[in-house]
Structures are given as C-alpha cells and as structure tokens.
Amino acid sequence: MTDDPLLWLTGRELLGMKFGLENMAGLMHELGEPHHSFPSVLVAGTNGKGSVTAIVDAALRAAGYRSARYTSPHLERIEERFVVDGREVATGALREAVASVQQAAERLCARGARGGEPTFFEAATAAAFELFRTERVDIAVVEVGLGGRLDATNVLHPLVTAITTIDFDHQAQLGNTIAEIAREKAGILKQGVPVVVGRVPPDAAAVIREMALAVGAPQMSAQAAARRLEGRSLALRGSHQRDNAMVAIAVLDALATRGFEIPGDAVAHALAHVEWPGRLEHRRYGTCDVLLDAAHNPAGARALAAYLREAEWSGATLVFGAMADKDAPGMLRELAPAVGRIVCTTPPTPRAASASALAREAAAAGAAAVDAVDDPLAALERACRQSSRVVVAGSMFLIGPLRGILR
Question: What is the pLDDT of residue 14?
C-alpha cells in the first residue's frame, strides 16, 4: 500500500480512462454502499454541467441544507472537486477517504475481482461518496465526468437528473453524431426520476424524449423557467449562462416536488452570488486585463466568441492551448474571427498538443497573426505586451496553472 493515499490516487491517472460500472459497483459494495447514504442530483451534458451543479448547490445551501458538490476536473488543487457546505474538503479528510478507497481496491484485487484496478476518476468518485457519507450531507449535487451511461457517477440513483447541452466532444468515446452523443448522455435516466433538459438540438431532443419514455422518466423542459430570469442579473457572465440558470431553476423546482423546499429568495441569492472559477473569469496581470475561460470544445469556443463580441473584446490577444485529442481546429475556427492575435502554447501535461502544431492550426483557421511560445507563462507575458486585453482558453489544463499565478 502506498504510504500517501493521495499519491496512490494521482498515480491512477496512468491507467487512463475506462468505461463501465463494474469497478464502481464493486468498490461501492466493498465500502458499504456509501452512494446510498445521501440523496443526490446528477447533472450531465457537453457544456454547462459544472455551472448548473454550482448554482443548484448554492441554492440548496442558501435554503439551509448541508449540500455537497462533486465536479471535475479541478483547476489548481484536487480538493476543489470535493465541496461540502460551500467549502473544499480539508486535505486530511480527503486523504482518509481515499485511503478507504485504496484499501477496498486492494482487497478486491487480492480476491481477483473482475474489472481490475480502478482508474483515477473511479477512485476519486468513490472517495467523494465516502466523504459525503462521513460528512452526513443532506444532499449531493454531482457532475457527470464523461458521457453518462458508463460514467462512474452513474451508480447513483438520484432524485433528479439533468442534461444541460448536447454538442460534439469526446467523439471517440461517445459517438460521431449528435444522436449518438445524446444517447450516451441520456444513459443517466432512471425510472420515475424526473429529467430536466436544457437547450439541445432537435436530434438530441428526439433521442432523450424516446429514452425518457422507455424508462419512465418524467421529462421537464428548462425553457419553462425563462420568465423567472426576466430582469435578473446573474453572477456568471455570458448569455449561455442564462440557459444554464434555467436548467438549474428547473432542477430546483423538481427537487421541491421530492421533498426539498427551496424558497425563491434562496434561488435568487444563488443566481446573484454563485462562484464558478475559470468561466469568463476576469483577472489582472500587471496592467493587462486577463479573461480566463474553460472553453475546451467548439461549442464552448462559440459561446466564448459570442461573449467577446458582446463585451467588445474583439481586439484581444488569445493565449490558446489544447489537448492533442481535442478538436483544436474547430475551436480556433470559432475564436479566430473574435480576437486579434493568437499566441499558441503548450499546457503542462503529457496529453497536450504542441504550441507549434496549434500555431499551424490557428493560421489555417484564418488568424490575423500567430505566435508559438511553449511555456504558458511566457506566452501570457508576450500576449500582455501585445494587448491590454488577453483571453486564455482551450483547456482547463492551461487556465488552471495560469490562474494560480494570476490569483
């Protein structure tokens, strides 16, 4: 057994991704089914699921509930993923929860259990559920990691599910059409459990409707909440966040029918005060205004480009970095017309695309001027010499480290 359970957990990243619920079911059984010890909300979607999770959690806390939140990935510290009552869990508490998961995994392996070693995400998710049981939370709001049907979070039997958006991302795992991606996301639907559906393409809406009818999941449209947002300002920037807010309001309405009363003033407080770092987040670097955004697929880049035009930031310099398995050309086609120069860089992770490769894609996307600077901080400094307004986007693995410096 590794001396430090957190090192054991981060070491799981070398195992990559694995889909299926066999490992999680085994871990949950070995741990005494911690995921059954608290009610939950499960939020899936291509984009927006983290924002919805944050708003719902904030409203539950404002209503007086001891709410927990589990999201991924993190920006700077792994503790960010595990939030109880509005605070990241203490490192010591996380270490204890991971130690329980590690011991359970080693017992299963010693007995030759099927499924093999848990991945990082499986182990982290199991630790979240163990933490929430220990903390005796009233309810947990859980963001799906990737897809839905085979995601480790899908061992939950939630009170309410939500699907925020459906667009292209992770096609290698989820499928190459909107309908295929929607089918994977809608794998979180459960019999008798209401599902809130955000603004999705017609092909996705048809698949979700079909699957909701097949499993007996009452479907609720988030658009019914639009009137509740009239004249209301939101803490989260960007017109796309109004769509996310509608999903969150509809989820809270559904929870009210299942025993969780959330007064209107608690909802209003959450909308006006929720914090969700790295999403159109403004920072300063010397005399430069820096905008950090977690856009990491073409749909996210489209939303960011729309915000830049609305905010009259179209002349800003973009610092761009992306993972090698992401659709960088698609993102750059959305962003290039909305910015001035582009400085491509290499996020500090083995999965990253190189700055030079991204620069070639940026030029092909029609960028007015392109630089390649391998080191992210050096790229930020060059961008700030070029413009008083700088946007950083393309990957959480880029904005996280830079946010640590800016913060």
Answer: 81
CA angle at 140 for the pair 178 and 75, rounded to the nearest 5° = 65
b/e string for 366-379 if b means 16 or more Cβ within 10 A? ebeebbbbeebeeb
pTM of the model: 0.96
pLDDT in tens, 266-297: 999 999 999 999 999 999 999 999 999 999 99
The confidence band for 115, taking pLDDT boundaries of 50, 70 and 90, is: low
pLDDT band at 2 (very low <50, low <70, confident <90, very high): low
User: Which sign does the torsion angle of CA 231, 235, 236, 241 carry?
Assistant: negative
* pLDDT reported for residue 19: 76
Taking the C-alpha atoms of residue 304 and residue 393, their distance in angstroms, rounded to an integer, is: 9
Domains identified in the chain and CATH numbers: 5-273 (3.40.1190.10), 281-406 (3.90.190.20)
Please give the helix or strand (H or E) that residue 256 lies within, else none: helix 240-256
Q: How far apart are CA 68 and CA 137, in angstroms?
A: 6
Q: Give, in order, the Cα–Cα distances in Å from 256 to each of 39, 87, 162, 250.
A: 13, 24, 15, 10
**Which two structure tokens, joined as six digits, stand for 135?**
């903390």
Kindly give the residue spans of alpha helices, DSSP state H, lying in 76-156.
91-110, 120-134
Would you give the DSSP letter of residue 323?
B
> Other CB atoms closer than 10 Å to residue 231's CB: what's the count?
4
Cβ 293 vs Cβ 399: under 8 Å = yes
